[in-house]
Write a structure and sequence with these properties.
Largest sheet: none
Structural class: mainly alpha
Radius of gyration: 13 Å
Helix content: over 70%
Strand content: under 5%
Distance between the termini: 16 Å
Number of strands: 0
Length: 113
């Protein structure tokens, strides 16, 4: 259950990054999207008491969020990344994206632990 809660921290982070990225300009560079996602993940992880417990040090939070943002952005095609960014907050309700984020979250949590 704790791992699922950790995954849920990625959903709003990706939605937030998508909201920032959808300003009508051409697609953001992957590195900038990864940076936005990493920052949103760190912010969310720092606010949730369970996440603070699971990722008990700043190094663990940085490692987890860095891993998750790199794997997520790196594992998406341009079309998938555009789709994710266009959905914004709606992404959190999409079961396909939830499964994908769970997979990334679990891989990175196992790497941190």
């Amino acid at each position: 259950m704790a791992k699922r809660l950790l995954l849920l921290s990625l959903l709003p982070a990706l939605a937030w990054a998508g909201t920032l990225a959808s300003d009508g300009q051409s697609a953001l560079p992957r590195q900038q999207i990864e940076h936005l996602l990493n920052n949103a993940c760190l912010k969310k992880a720092g606010q949730e008491s369970l996440l603070k417990t699971l990722l008990s040090t700043p190094a663990a939070m940085n490692s987890y969020c860095g891993c998750a943002s790199q794997r997520l952005v790196g594992g998406l095609s341009d079309d998938e990344l555009t789709d994710a960014l266009s959905k914004g907050k709606e992404l959190t309700h999409d079961p396909v994206w939830k499964r994908r984020l769970l997979s990334v979250g679990l891989q990175c949590l196992d790497k941190v632990k």
